[in-house]
Design a protein that fits this description.
The protein contains no helices and 14 strands. The protein is an all-beta fold.
């Protein structure tokens, strides 16, 4: 199945609070595993994500669960170049248009990065850091004994140009950058065939299920 045919079912569930890692609601969200970004093969460390939404709360909720034996992140401020060290990333294009998409990142120490990517003629990529996400809530915790990092995000609909509507899918991909003594490993849900996350034609479809 090609990325343009791959689909993820984002279901609507009414939540009573920010969902912790052990919240039963996550059992209702299909897990999806990341692969090595270039080859599509199984990476050294396992990473999976789950995505749900709450139309009453008007927000998406993303959970990333990752094997993690070392943390490499020295940043201490939001909107620094988090992508040069350990980080989780979501690229998402409202309405399915892949020439403009949002780049959202969270570091192992719960720092965030948000921006808008625009692709112009000739494939030139432009990053606009003016885009903010009021109400963006993240909770990222590393369990050293379990060699695991879990990151949970709340992303309000109001930050996007439109709200999700069943029958009108968006496009997206999920990524991870991991550094260790083994070197740098790049992971993607939909692998891009290159050591590059910014290949929007590889984005999958995000279906909104009622």
């Amino acid at each position: 199945m090609t990325p343009s045919q791959t689909r993820y079912a984002c279901c609507n569930h009414e939540l009573t609070a920010f969902p912790e890692a052990n919240d039963p609601v996550w059992a209702k969200a299909p897990p999806a595993e990341l692969k090595e970004v270039e080859s599509g093969k199984r990476p050294f460390l396992r990473t999976e994500f789950q995505l749900i939404r709450d139309d009453k709360e008007k927000a998406f909720y993303l959970k990333i669960t990752a094997e993690d034996d070392e943390l490499h992140s020295t940043y201490r401020l939001d909107d620094e170049t988090l992508y040069t060290q350990d980080v989780f990333e979501l690229f998402i294009a409202e309405g399915g248009e892949i020439t403009t998409y949002r780049e959202i990142e969270v570091s192992p120490f719960d720092l965030t990065f948000t921006g808008t990517i625009r692709i112009t003629e000739g494939g030139k990529r432009h990053l606009n850091m003016d885009w903010e996400m009021p109400g963006f809530v993240t909770k990222t915790r590393h369990n050293e004994l379990a060699h695991q990092t879990i990151s949970i995000w709340k992303m309000p609909y109001a930050a996007f140009n439109m709200a999700p509507v069943p029958g009108k899918p968006w496009r997206f991909n999920v990524f991870r950058v991991d550094h260790s003594r083994r070197g740098e490993e790049l992971q993607a849900w939909q692998h891009t065939g290159a050591r590059n996350f910014h290949v929007p034609e590889c984005f999958a479809w995000l279906d909104f299920i009622q």
